[in-house]
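Example S7 (structure tokens).
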């Protein structure tokens, strides 16, 4: 097996000034701490656990029990088994007890960037307690499942934490999903209550959330699934009343009201007390369910637990961003995805951080949106995804450069491999070459970053997520499941447990075992390809399902795409393997052009040539296929499996409910007929 192409050797160092205030200020310090975390994980994580409140601390020494070997029975992992705590208490009450009650925990900005709100930790506690009491008044108790279907808002966080306070398990469903997708997830997780709002805007698109919820609940009812209640927050029009066809509503939309189950947020919140005793839970009790993005197939409902997730979200937030007391954090991740569960909510609050939530998209009302927020709220840490960076790059440097951004200290990226061109733009243009760019690799399943840069410690190689986080034993396996030492190309797996790992797929433990543990017994298998270079840096090479196999040689989708995106005409690229009558398989690359460029035979030749030159003859695509946009999940990940099917004229796309823009399917079919 070969991966052609030379590793990108350029290294960018964090500045001495940054290092001076960093928690970890050299690579040796990282290595020392990392070694400790691996040699004695129980002692390492027990020290972290001591920073939190535990109602009861287990006297036995079973801080970690696990089985990763299917020959020894079912896969399981238990951290701090028997110890008792509450997540909400630790991330809200405990922060207040430390004297930070008056600190703002959330700034919120509406879609049109015209309405602002903020909330202190003291206020958050009151609202969360009220919501917890509201749930209790409806009969919700420990273990019940609460669906949350709302746009990014403080109320969404209140609903999450209110559930966590009484041991109800929340399942946040991204507000861009359809009624069918929402119903599927409600039924799959057996939710008995839903929290939604009247509606929301995403850029200039109106999303009738209550309507969609009504439709979803109808589907649920037809399938025999009953709900106790639907709590409706008056998000868009603060004067909205639960009267049908209310004439006061200032947009052309009136919500339907079903007296049997609909409950007005404001009514129920005003009828309950603002203190609620936390329900004490076992460390291994479930905290929430969250579905994966669905890039490679049917979304999986991952179950995260109270104790392990608390430790992992807290520590990753602290070290990945070098969080320092008083820092303000802005992330473009939607609360419907894992990055925001860990970093906009639990990990940030556990550190007592101030978080900026914004509704809508990063380029609406103008491409200055994020830069304005950063200046207005003196944001110190800015976290986003490569797809957002690339879309911001398209607008040129002007919008960024019209802002000061002098409060910024750390920039972060995650969710997909970042191409060096986007990395350098982030570093140069956004961070003025002052802020370390931390790339972190993780999955909904992993609870937090697994491979990550440590600002202040890690010499950065643009395009590499660099090194394993504390407690993470990363290995590269060959196709027989044998560990490869030193520089290697293969599949990324984790050998030892870490506290953040999801314990199961909700109600489907067999599927969990098959997906993550069966292929390479004894390891958690990520399903992602990786290359480890001679300095020990990890470079993600693409999904195993998306492997490019040309004449028996495996090529990385990421390498081919990176080479092609460097062409000034290309905004985005997705490489997939396609059938070939002689070679068996060849490469087709779907591209999106930058504004002002036209696809013609010259450009076609040029792009092919670039891949050949940068990587090698094998990597030369047989076909370049322009599209107006690539098919992506609602969380922004490229769905290469659909493109691979298009090359085979196979339009049985399977589950496309996670696709952001269904209209692309039509373009894919048309595209296919022209080849
Ligand atoms: P599904 O599991 O349903 O197919 P998904 O894998 O896209 O969906 P997520 O959990 O949202 O769902 O995404 C995790 C995946 O994102 C990783 O497995 C990896 O492929 C990719 N990824 C995340 N962060 C990075 C990163 N920094 N560099 C490279 N790839 C990344
Ligand atoms: Mg996945």
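Recovered sequence:
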């Amino acid at each position: 097996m070969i991966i052609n192409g030379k590793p990108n050797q350029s290294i960018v160092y964090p500045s001495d000034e940054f290092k001076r205030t960093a928690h970890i200020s050299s690579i040796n310090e990282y290595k020392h701490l990392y070694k400790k975390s691996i040699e004695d994980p129980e002692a390492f994580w027990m020290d972290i656990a001591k920073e939190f409140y535990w109602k009861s601390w287990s006297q036995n020494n079973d801080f970690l029990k696990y089985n990763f070997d299917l020959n020894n029975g079912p896969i399981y992992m238990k951290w701090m088994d028997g110890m008792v705590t509450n997540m909400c208490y630790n991330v809200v009450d405990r922060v207040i007890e430390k004297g930070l009650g008056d600190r703002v925990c959330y700034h919120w900005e509406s879609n049109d960037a015209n309405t602002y709100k903020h909330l202190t930790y003291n206020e958050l506690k009151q609202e969360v307690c009220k919501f917890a009491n509201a749930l209790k008044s409806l009969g919700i108790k420990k273990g019940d499942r609460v669906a949350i279907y709302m746009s990014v808002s403080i109320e969404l966080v209140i609903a999450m934490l209110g559930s966590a306070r009484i041991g109800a398990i929340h399942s946040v469903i991204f507000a861009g999903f359809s009624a069918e997708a929402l119903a599927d997830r409600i039924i799959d997780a057996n939710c008995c209550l839903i929290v939604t709002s009247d509606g929301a805007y995403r850029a200039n698109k109106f999303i009738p959330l209550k309507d969609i919820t009504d439709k979803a609940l109808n589907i649920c009812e037809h399938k025999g699934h009953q709900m106790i209640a639907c709590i409706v927050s008056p998000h868009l029009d603060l004067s909205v009343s639960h009267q049908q066809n209310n004439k006061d509503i200032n947009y052309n939309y009136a919500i339907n009201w079903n007296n049997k189950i609909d409950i007005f947020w404001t009514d129920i919140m005003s009828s309950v007390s603002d203190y609620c005793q936390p329900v004490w839970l076992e460390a291994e009790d479930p905290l929430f369910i969250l579905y994966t993005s669905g890039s490679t197939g049917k979304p999986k409902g991952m179950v995260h637990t109270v104790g392990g997730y608390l430790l992992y979200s807290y520590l990753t937030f602290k070290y990945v961003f070098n969080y320092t007391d008083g820092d303000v954090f802005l992330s473009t991740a939607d609360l419907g995805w894992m990055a925001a569960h860990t970093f906009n909510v639990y990990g940030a609050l556990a550190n007592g951080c101030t978080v900026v939530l914004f509704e809508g998209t990063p380029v609406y009302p103008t491409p200055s949106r994020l830069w304005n927020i950063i200046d207005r709220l003196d944001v110190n840490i800015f976290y986003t995804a490569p797809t957002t960076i690339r879309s911001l790059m398209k607008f040129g440097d002007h919008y960024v450069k019209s802002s000061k951004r002098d409060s910024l200290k750390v920039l972060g990226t995650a969710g997909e491999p970042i191409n060096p061109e986007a990395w350098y733009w982030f570093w140069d243009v956004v961070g003025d070459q002052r802020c370390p760019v931390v790339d972190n690799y993780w999955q909904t399943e992993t609870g937090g970053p697994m491979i990550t840069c440590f600002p202040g410690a890690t010499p950065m190689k643009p395009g590499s997520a660099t090194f394993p986080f504390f407690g993470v034993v990363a290995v590269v396996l060959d196709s027989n499941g044998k560990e490869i030492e030193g520089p290697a190309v293969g599949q990324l797996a984790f050998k030892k447990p870490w506290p953040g790992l999801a314990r199961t797929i909700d109600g489907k433990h067999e599927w969990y075992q098959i997906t993550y543990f069966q292929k390479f017994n004894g390891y958690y298998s990520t399903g992602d390809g990786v290359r480890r270079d001679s300095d020990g840096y990890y470079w993600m090479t693409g999904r195993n399902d998306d492997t490019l196999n040309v004449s028996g040689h495996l090529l990385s989708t990421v390498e081919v795409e990176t080479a092609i995106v460097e062409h000034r005409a290309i905004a985005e690229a997705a490489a997939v393997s396609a059938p070939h009558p002689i070679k068996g398989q060849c490469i087709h690359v779907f591209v999106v052009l930058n504004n002002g460029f036209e696809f013609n035979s010259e450009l076609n030749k040029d792009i092919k040539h670039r891949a050949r030159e940068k990587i090698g003859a094998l990597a030369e695509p047989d076909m370049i296929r322009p599209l107006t946009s690539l098919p992506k999940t609602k969380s922004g990940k490229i769905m290469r499996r659909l493109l691979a099917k298009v090359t085979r004229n196979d339009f049985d796309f399977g589950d496309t409910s996670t696709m952001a823009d269904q209209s692309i399917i039509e373009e894919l079919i048309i595209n296919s007929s022209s080849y």
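Notes on this example. The longest helix spans residues 121-137.
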